């Protein structure tokens, strides 16, 4: 069993490089199924989730090669087989469900087991299936699997009851090769959605925005191979921004821009953090007095739910009362008991957390309950007195590649140990 051990750090110094966005890389890898030619993805870190979905493609007979030196991922799905039976890999990661849209588009059928992932909420797949049905697919569900079939997908107008990121991505990919035009209303608008769209358009798709939360897909007959570099991970960048804030430090975050980080930047500014954009990155200066802030998570361009646990760690150290309201996932306060073990003062009322900032956290044994909760516990460990030992770190590895190495370069006393 592995743990990450963090010791109290007085100040961070230096620069940090941010990886490509996991939430861009995963749907883009699924999108490679649509194309029978070689695709090269640049600057891809082999996170646990990336390993799972690439292993799934290999099992389906895609050619997948990865270079640890260049971080290039090369995929050729010319000989890929349709997924016709349940697969254990799909159960390990919810993003594996994103192969259903491309499989349905290319082969007209797909049978897949119900997906797994972090236990932070129900995250129902009904919106995905609603989209597939609107495109003309027949859906059968039972015994832990879902089967979709269609002789030919036909473009249609689809309204999503909620701007689900996964459903938007899956419907876009299902519609790329469909006959006619598909219009998705109330679509998700995250930067990762538009990275997927840019990727597909480079391959020959015809997709564009039609106004607020509207995406228009005109079906094409085929796609061609390309080289593409996914966008940077705004959640990883946000995590290191909070690290500077919580330790009263100034660091540089390389190769990011303010555009995708605005909701995070604005809340940090409310707390008293200074963020300055430079030509090749941003400077985050957390050396000033801090103020409390209230946060409500919302679909983009609102405050991202994936940054809620990290901000809770920060607000737990700022004197005064802060409120966090979680509107996206109903179970995304599972990190609260772990922060309480470290001395935080947090009370939960439904979907709202009331945080009374304390002057000092203390290190202890805690467990990562999900991906972003694990990041929050490391952040808390940066300022906790003594030593913080974070367990269940496989959750962290799903979204952060060698997180301890990046923190170590900033001067943090942190190590990964096997117990």
Automatic annotation (TrEMBL):
A GO CC annotation given for this chain: cytoplasm
Q: Which GO terms describe its biological process?
A: cell division; cell wall organization; peptidoglycan biosynthetic process; regulation of cell shape; UDP-N-acetylgalactosamine biosynthetic process
Q: Sites of the modification 2-(S-cysteinyl)pyruvic acid O-phosphothioketal?
A: 118
Q: What family is this?
A: Belongs to the EPSP synthase family. MurA subfamily.
Query: Which residues participate directly in catalysis?
Result: 118
UniProt KW keywords: Cell cycle, Cell division, Cell shape, Cell wall biogenesis/degradation, Cytoplasm, Peptidoglycan synthesis, Pyruvate, Transferase
Catalytically driven reaction(s)? phosphoenolpyruvate + UDP-N-acetyl-alpha-D-glucosamine = UDP-N-acetyl-3-O-(1-carboxyvinyl)-alpha-D-glucosamine + phosphate
EC main group: transferase
Enzyme nomenclature, EC number: 2.5.1.7
Q: Name one Pfam family in it.
A: EPSP_synthase
Q: Where in the cell is it found?
A: Cytoplasm
Enumerate the SUPFAM superfamilies for this protein: EPT/RTPC-like
Domain Enolpyruvate transferase: residue ranges: 7-406
Q: In which pathway does it act?
A: Cell wall biogenesis; peptidoglycan biosynthesis
**What protein name is recorded for this chain?**
UDP-N-acetylglucosamine 1-carboxyvinyltransferase
Binding-site residues for UDP-N-acetyl-alpha-D-glucosamine, renumbered to this chain: 94, 123-127, 306, 328
* Domain of life of the source: Bacteria
Q: Name one GO molecular function term.
A: UDP-N-acetylglucosamine 1-carboxyvinyltransferase activity
Q: Which InterPro entries does UniProt cross-reference here? A: Enolpyruvate_Tfrase_dom (IPR001986), Enolpyruvate_Tfrase_sf (IPR036968), MurA_subfamily (IPR050068), RNA3'P_cycl/enolpyr_Trfase_a/b (IPR013792), UDP_GlcNAc_COvinyl_MurA (IPR005750)
Q: Name the gene behind this protein.
A: murA
Residues that coordinate or bind phosphoenolpyruvate: 22-23
């Amino acid at each position: 069993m592995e743990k990450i051990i963090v010791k109290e750090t007085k100040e961070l110094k230096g620069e940090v490089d941010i990886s490509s966005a996991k939430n861009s890389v995963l749907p883009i890898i699924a999108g490679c199924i649509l194309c029978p030619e070689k695709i090269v993805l640049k600057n891809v870190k082999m996170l646990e989730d990336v390993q799972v979905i690439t292993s799934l493609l290999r099992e389906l007979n895609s050619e997948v090669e990865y270079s640890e030196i260049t971080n290039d991922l090369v995929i050729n799905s010319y000989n890929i087989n349709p997924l016709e039976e349940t697969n254990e890999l799909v159960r390990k990661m919810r993003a594996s469900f994103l192969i259903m849209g491309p499989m349905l588009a290319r082969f007209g059928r797909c049978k897949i087991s119900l997906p797994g992932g972090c236990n932070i909420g129900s995250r129902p797949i009904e919106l995905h299936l609603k989209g597939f049905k609107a495109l003309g697919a027949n859906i059968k569900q039972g015994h832990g699997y879902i089967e979709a079939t269609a002789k030919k997908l036909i473009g249609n107008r689809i309204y999503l009851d909620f701007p689900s990121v996964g459903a938007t991505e899956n419907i876009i990919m299902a519609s790329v090769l469909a006959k006619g035009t598909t219009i998705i209303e109330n679509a998700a608008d995250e930067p990762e959605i538009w990275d997927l769209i840019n990727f597909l358009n480079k391959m020959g798709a015809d997709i564009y925005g039609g106004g607020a939360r509207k995406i228009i897909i005109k079906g094409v007959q085929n796609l061609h191979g390309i080289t593409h570099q996914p966008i940077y991970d705004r959640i990883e960048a946000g995590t290191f921004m909070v690290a500077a804030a919580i330790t009263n430090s100034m660091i540089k975050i390389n190769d990011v821009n303010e555009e995708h980080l605005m909701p995070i930047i604005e809340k940090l500014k409310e707390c008293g953090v200074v963020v300055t954009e430079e030509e090749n990155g941003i400077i985050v200066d957390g050396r000033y007095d801090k103020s409390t802030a209230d946060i409500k998570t919302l679909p983009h361009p609102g405050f991202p739910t994936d940054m809620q646990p990290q901000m809770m760690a920060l607000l737990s150290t700022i004197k005064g009362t802060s409120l966090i309201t979680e509107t996206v996932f109903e179970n995304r306060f599972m990190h609260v008991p772990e922060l309480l073990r470290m001395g935080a003062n947090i009370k939960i009322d439904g979907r709202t957390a009331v945080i009374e900032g304390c002057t000092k956290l203390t290190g202890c044994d805690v467990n990562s309950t999900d991906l972003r909760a694990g990041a929050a516990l490391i952040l808390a460990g940066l300022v906790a007195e003594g030593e913080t030992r974070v367990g269940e770190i496989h959750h962290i590895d799903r979204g952060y590649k060698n997180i301890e190495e990046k923190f170590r370069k900033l001067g943090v006393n942190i190590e990964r140990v096997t117990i």
